[in-house]
Amino acid sequence: MRDAVKRLGSDPDKINPICPSDLVIDHSIQVDFIRSKDALKKNEEMEYERNKERFMFLKWGAKAFQNMLIVPPGSGIIHQVNLEYLARVVFDMNGLLYPDSVVGTDSHTTMINGLGVLGWGVGGIEAEAVMLGQAMSMLVPKVVGYRLDGVLSQYATSTDLVLTITKHLRQVGVVGKFVEFFGPGVSQLSIADRATISNMCPEYGATVGFFPVDQQSLAYLKQTGRSDEHINVIEKYLTTVRMLRNYDDESQDPVFSEVVSLDLGTIVSSVSGPKRPHDRVSIIDMKADFRKCLTNKMDIFDAAEKYAKDQTPLIILVGKEYGSGSSRDWAAKGPYLLGVRAVIAESYERIHRSNLVGMGIIPLEYLPGQTAESLGLTGHEAYDIAIPENCQPGQNITVTTDDGKKFEVILRFDTEVDLTYYKHGGILNYMIRKML
C-alpha cells in the first residue's frame, strides 16, 4: 500500500497504524528436538534460521511503523498472550480512562471476553483498514443474556460445559448477536473457565461471549503480574461507571433482548463431532450415536481454470452458516481470485460475510423459507443479478436465470460502509483512494 500511495503521488508515511497494533508470532515453532532441557532453545534457533527472511522483514516492520508491537515466536499462543500480558481492561491515556477493546485477525479473539474486555475477530482485510484509522461498521446487535446457575459436578470439565453451551446457543440462534453471561453460576467459574467459553464464541455463532469484570477478574490481573497501581485504577474506574459486576447480586442484572439459562449441575461428560463442535454427544449416548462420516472429493481446479480462461464470472450457491469453521480472509481472497463475484446463501457467519464484502464479492441471502432446492436451482444455470445503482443496505433485489426462473434475494450489504466498499471494488481499493 505504501508503494501504491507513493506511485499515486502522495506521502507513503500516511500508511501507518493509527491505533495500537500488536503482532503476535505464534503457532510457528516446529519440533525438531525433544527429551532434553535445551530442546525449546534449539527449536527456536532452528525456527529463526528457517524463517530468517521473514523475521528480518518483521524486524524492519517494527522500526518502520509506529504504534506497533511485535511479540516474537516462542512467547505463546496469541490469545493467551493477550489474556496474560497485553490486555489493559481499562486504557489510561494521559489521565483519560475508557474501557479496553480489541479486534483481532483470528475468530477466537473473543477469548479475551472472559476477562471482561470487549473484542471479536475480523477479517485480515478489515483489520488493515482499522489499523489505518477506518472505523468499524456494524448493525446494533441484540444482546442475549445467558444465565448460569448452580455448580459444575466434579466429573465435568470446562470443555464439557462449553460444548453444552455451544449446542444450546446454536439451537437458540445467536449469529450476529452479543451474548453476555450473568447469574450466580458465573462466580463459580475461574477466569480460565470463562476464557474457554468465550474462546468458543465462533463455534456458537455469536459476535461476543462476554463476562463483565468482577473481583475474580481483578485477582487474575494481579496473578498475571499487572501492577497494583493499574489494578486500583481499573477497580475505581469500573466502580464509578457501574461496570464492576457482582454476579450474586440480582439487582445488577441488565435488561437483555432475550434470556436463556443453564444449570451447571446438569453438565455431563461429552464429545463433539464428527464435523462441528455443536454436534455434541453425551458419553453415555456415544455407543448408540457412533457412525462413520464419509466425504466425497470435489476437484474444482480444472473447472476454475476453464472459467478463468473464458473470463466467466462465477457465483456460489450454498446453505446455512456459510463461512463457519473459523474462515480466514483467504476463504474470500481465494474465491475472488478464482473468479467468484457473488454468493447466495441461506445464512452467513459474521466474519466471512465481512471478508466477502472486503474483497468486493456480493453476499446475497435467500428469503426466509427459501433454499436452492426449493427454488429448483442446480448450479448449471447462468445468473443475472440486478443491483440498482442507488441500492440500499439489506434491500431485496431480483435474480434471473437463463432457464426463466426469477426470484428475490436479500442484498447482505448491512451498512452504508459495506456499499461504499463494494462500489470501490473492495476495502483496500477504497482505503488507497481515500488517502490520495
UniProtKB/TrEMBL annotation:
One Pfam match, by short name?
Aconitase
Where is the organism placed in the taxonomic lineage, from the top? Eukaryota, Metazoa, Ecdysozoa, Arthropoda, Hexapoda
Record bears the keyword ATP-binding: no
Designated name of the protein: Aconitase/3-isopropylmalate dehydratase large subunit alpha/beta/alpha domain-containing protein
What SUPFAM superfamilies is this protein classified in? Aconitase iron-sulfur domain, LeuD/IlvD-like
At the top level of its lineage, which domain of life is listed? Eukaryota
Please name the GO terms that the record assigns under molecular function: iron-sulfur cluster binding; metal ion binding
Alphabetized, the UniProt keywords read: Iron, Iron-sulfur, Metal-binding
Respond yes or no to whether keyword Iron is given for this record.
yes
- UniProt-listed InterPro entries: Acnase/IPM_dHydase_lsu_aba_1/3, Acoase/IPM_deHydtase_lsu_aba, Aconitase/3IPM_dehydase_swvl, Aconitase/IRP2, Aconitase_4Fe-4S_dom
Q: What sequence ranges are listed for the domain Aconitase/3-isopropylmalate dehydratase large subunit alpha/beta/alpha?
A: 1-297
